[in-house]
Amino acid sequence: MLSVRFGRDLSKHLAKWQCYGMRASSTIPPMPRTDFVPPSYQGPDYEKVKQIRKANLNPGLLTYYRNPILVHQGHMQWLWDDKGKRYLDLFAGIVTVSVGHCHPKVTEAVISQVKKLWHTTNIYLHPEIHRYAEKLTAKLPGNLKNVYFVNSGSEANDMAILMARLYTKSFDIITLRNAYHGASPTTMGLTALSTWRYSVPGGFGMQQTMNPDVYRGPWGGKACRDSPIQTDRSCDCSEGHCQACDMYVDQLEDTLRHSTPKGRIAAFFAEPIQGVGGTVQYPKNYLKRAYDIIHNNGGICIADEVQTGFGRTGTHYWGFQGHGVMPDIVTMAKGIGNGFPLAAVVTTPEIASVMSQALHFNTYGGNPMASAVGSAVLDAVEEDNCQQISHEVGTYFLNKLAKLRDQYDVVGDVRGKGLMIALELVDNKVTRKALPVDQVNDIWEDCKDNGVLLGKGGLYGHVLRIKPPMCITKQDVEFAMAVMANAFESHKNKRQ
Fold it and tell me: Which residues make Cβ contacts (< 8 Å) with residue 243, sequence separation at least 6?
């Protein structure tokens, strides 16, 4: 675990802080210290990198920030750019670096494996995939004991679609609006965000039902979601009963009545907490009731744990456990490999058996390197108490952020659980109209300039996403809070 000392005397550390290239502001304390010293950058210069990116990389590839940062070194929760400036990484490579950048245990595992065996086909036996399969499935409840290894979340969800249709002998699949489940030609049909969909035929047999968003949706109240922080919407719900949940469940049933064959559903896909869509949480008991409805219509339920798994939600190892449900298939990626290309589909032996109807093979899935990394990540999550950090530091962070919501009109909602957190920025708190993207970007850029990297999400790109490596400290939170408050104050002054 990274050793961090948080300086209390601003004047004592100001000179050192300024050398990191951040703006001087009396409201922002020094960045927490780290003992790690990165080597100097030795790669192509900044302008050359930008030239190569424009000429040789996918033009659809999004680049963050008006002046993109050129990252060359990572260590735990920290990143360094080509000029040596340090950043607190609160987005973790899009919720991918779970236990920390270049975590020593994970780094050693891959180096050790590379010296023995990089790759061999899985039609031969090699020990790492078998060790890892046993260790990973032991983390899942019930009869979720059969795993298929692939390389990305999109691949995992592709396979889950195939399994569901083969097993149920049905075709139609239900997802939620505002969901993100991948961008392959097939998973694009599951994804219900127009910003991620191309104008090509796709999504055959895939239907989207109303998203049960208790902040932005038509129904929602002050005690709907499983979060330390609730919306500021009022409601008349009695203790233990959520009227908003009733209404959104009615919408799911209406979708089934009108848009699918009667009693013939293949599957229902849902993230335990929506990630790309802006860390949207559903009303309590929504998923439990949705699962019951889908099972009663002959379908199976698939939990997309690509962003919520491995302790990130704090109270549970898997996001679905927080909803009190038992999925039939679980897909996982991102944090499973701490940045190494690795993903998995875990299901029951009964459902998995349908894949024996034909030959199935994934060239790189579960190869020796990937399996060694995945196994080391599981160990690091346990040894470093990542789930506990997510719960304790995440709850601390959420409660601090709620004060920003109360202080600044631009912060419409604060939500999340563990270290899966978001702030929704609005132009008007009453109408909940999204803050215009240029103003969102001003706030976002200000945070970056002062050393804090945040993600963005939501349909309008107006949600700030906080999903850091699960090794951050309360001192890091205090620094991030000061940086964000400074950005919000600057925005407030510009609007006056």
Answer: 219, 221, 235, 236, 237
Residue entry with tokens 């100001």 = 14
Q: How many CB atoms lie within 10 A of CB 112?
A: 11
Beta bridge partners of 89: 453
**Pairwise CA distance, residues 201 & 206, whole Å:** 12
**Secondary element (H or E) of residue 491:** helix 474-495
How much is the pTM?
0.93
> Taking the alpha carbons of 125, 167, 363, 108 in that order, is the dihedral positive or negative?
negative
Q: From the CB of residue 254, how many other CB atoms can be counted at a distance below 10 Å?
A: 12
Tens-place pLDDT, residues 356-406:
999 888 899 999 999 999 999 999 999 999 999 999 999 999 999 999 999
Q: Which tokens hold the place of 411?
A: 């912060």
Q: What's the first-to-final CA gap in the chain, in angstroms? A: 44
274: DSSP letter: B
Q: Residue 358's CB: how many other CB atoms inside 10 A?
A: 7
CA dihedral 480, 484, 489, 492 (to 10 degrees): -170
Directed axis angle between helix 104-114 and helix 368-383, to 10°?
160
- Number of helices (H) and strands (E) in the chain: give both, helices first: 13, 16
C-beta of residue 164 within 8 angstroms of C-beta of residue 206 = no
HSE of 208, CA atoms in CB hemisphere, 13 A: 18
The bridge status of strand 206-209 relative to strand 173-176 is parallel
Q: What distance lies between CA 216 and its chain's CA centroid?
A: 20
Q: Over the stretch 279-288, which tens digit does the pLDDT of each residue have?
A: 999 999 999 9
Report the run of H or E that residue 47 belongs to, with start and end. helix 46-56
Residue found by looking up tokens 């694009």 in the block: 188
Helices 386-407 and 474-495 cross at an angle (nearest 10°) of: 20
Res 2 pLDDT > 80:
no
Looking at residue 427, its pLDDT comes to 97
pLDDT tops 50 at residue 6: no
